[in-house]
Amino acid sequence: MATKTKTVKKIPSGKKLVIVESPTKARTISKFLGNDFIVESSYGHVRDLPKSRLGIDTENNFQPSYIVPIKARKRVKELKKLAEKSSEIILASDEDREGEAIAWHLTYALGIDPEKQKTKRIVFHEITKTAIDHAIGNPRDIDMNLVDAQQARRILDRLVGYELSPFLWKKVFRGLSAGRVQSVAVRLVVDREREIEAFKPQEYWGIEAELDKNKENFIAKLYKKDDRVLDKLEIKSKQEADNILGDLKNATYKVTQVEKKESRRMPSPPFTTSSLQQEASSKLRYGAKQTMMLAQQLYEQGYISYMRTDSVNLSNDSLIAAKKFISENYGKEFSLEEPRRFKTKAKGAQEAHEAIRPTEPSRKPDDISGKLDAKQYKLYDLIWRRFIACQMQMAVFDSTTVDIAAANYIFRANGSVIKFEGWLKVYPSKFTENILPLLVVKDILELIKILPSQHFTEPPPRYNEASLIKTLEENGIGRPSTYAPTITTIQTRHYVAKNDQKRFMPTETGLTVNDLLTEHFPEVVNIKFTATMEERFDEVAEGKEKWVPMIKSFYGPFHKNLENKMEKVEKQNTDEKTDEVCEKCGKPMIIKMGRFGKFMACSGFPDCKNTKKVDKEPPKSIGMTCPKCGKHEIVIKHTKRKRIFYGCPGYPECDYASWKDPTKPEEEEGE
């Protein structure tokens, strides 16, 4: 929904005009500037490529035809009047490529003539008085290398999307679209699904012994046979497990080795865009889009540093402030002598940028809880704790490993106890203490019982938002600003959908489009090729490569192949025959695939345009008779919000329903 444009204030002649992207950011910055400044918002982009046509002259060095969108025209007109009266124009959009492009587009949209109007570009990593004052005192020119990198990405994505989409319309059905990064993301989901389909589970067994010393019980796992470490999949059947149990019959369990050592655990680095999205997904159940929206709000209110970054660097000022806060609030034993610095591992990371951190380390989440809504508070709390923890001492554990001989086998028990919390005091991690009784070599232990257990290897898990973003980052696909939009796009275009476990599965449309692109346009969905293009965008941003030759090297072969495939590739027939007859004209009904899934249509189209929904598959039975009526088998059902429950198909005569699986009575009620 378009943002409602506010009435622009009048500006007295001689004042300096500061232009940012959002009204929230404008309000925050205005608090730090004096009466000589007026801070206004552009409400995002003021120029873009037209939606109705390609807007790129492929015959003339890919020159773009930018326009001012209708929704931005009123605001541009207002800003233009302000710019004419101001003594100085300060462009203060974000510090990344997108922000640099917004600043550049503003100069054209507002008709700013640098020769006649004094124009400056300022950037800052955080919205604080110190950062703003420093930026005002150290302006620079617009960085055309960053602008060109943004233009190159925008133009290349437009060429791929606008030229490939008609191919998909012609060969599959109308309404489809392709994209350079989104198509690779869909391919990852499709490839993983096929891995799962091809997977053959392998049986294996584990054996544990519950042992006792002085009425203190603990568990030890089978570790060796004849001094050879057993592989996880070593025991392949119940028969092999039973043979081992036979060997252990009447065995004496004797402690042969006790090893105690101190182990230390480092905290995780401060957040990057990717790691924040992953952690917010796993700990807060926030989607990538929601996380970025909340982070943007926190940034614009001045609470955190810039939220689009792939660097784990931290400023010296923030490190000094963190040490002071930790010493005063947790004690000197928790602070570091020297700051801990982390090395960025992401491909193509911008080392000059900073990680995501609180702008004031001393500002605890509870200090601003009244100024944030519940979701903003949780995200700030996560960012604040991660940053403070990364500058605290390591957590220290007392670890004990005990080997226990039984016949020709060795069982092993591991125990860990926290000796010093360190960073865990601020950023609790998944760690459960396992306390063993006091054991010494030659102790004879009492066997309580042997615990054999059957297992099966499992296929690789489907991607969730966190793991898909992690894979994109590891492969150099996209950059911090693209992860969330990519995840959103592949869902809104119905190429992938989330199952009940919030994991991605390809739709039939996604499978069809992926297979077609993989066969005929392999470079578009090739992970390595797409990563290489990202690296070339980075080289444009660094001034090492010119954007026009870069686009030309891709577009020439791509367009030639497209023209060839448009003629030679046959239309994909996804229709399915049915036994149903059209009630309007009597011709057979067929099942067709559309943008939103399957639907039934008359084969007499376009003479007969009858369509209707495809009957859904019947609910899946769990193989248990209803405990209330005894007539029907319980089936899996879904609420309107897709939550699973178990119910009797005889409803309303029988109203049996349960949130938990009745075949597993030990399970607790779900949320």
From TrEMBL:
One GO biological process term: DNA topological change
Region (Disordered): 258-279, 346-369
Active-site residues annotated for this sequence: 306
Record EC number: 5.6.2.1
GO MF: DNA binding; DNA topoisomerase type I (single strand cut, ATP-independent) activity; zinc ion binding
Domain named Toprim: residues: 15-127
Residues carrying the site annotation Interaction with DNA: 45, 153-154, 157, 162, 169, 308, 493
Catalytic activity field: ATP-independent breakage of single-stranded DNA, followed by passage and rejoining
Biased composition (Basic and acidic residues): 348-369
Assigned keywords, A-Z: DNA-binding, Isomerase, Magnesium, Metal-binding, Topoisomerase, Zinc, Zinc-finger
Domain of life: Bacteria
GO cellular component, one term: chromosome
Role according to the record: Releases the supercoiling and torsional tension of DNA, which is introduced during the DNA replication and transcription, by transiently cleaving and rejoining one strand of the DNA duplex. Introduces a single-strand break via transesterification at a target site in duplex DNA. The scissile phosphodiester is attacked by the catalytic tyrosine of the enzyme, resulting in the formation of a DNA-(5'-phosphotyrosyl)-enzyme intermediate and the expulsion of a 3'-OH DNA strand. The free DNA strand then undergoes passage around the unbroken strand, thus removing DNA supercoils.
Family as reported in the entry's similarity comment: Belongs to the type IA topoisomerase family.
Subunit note: Monomer.
Protein name (database record): DNA topoisomerase 1
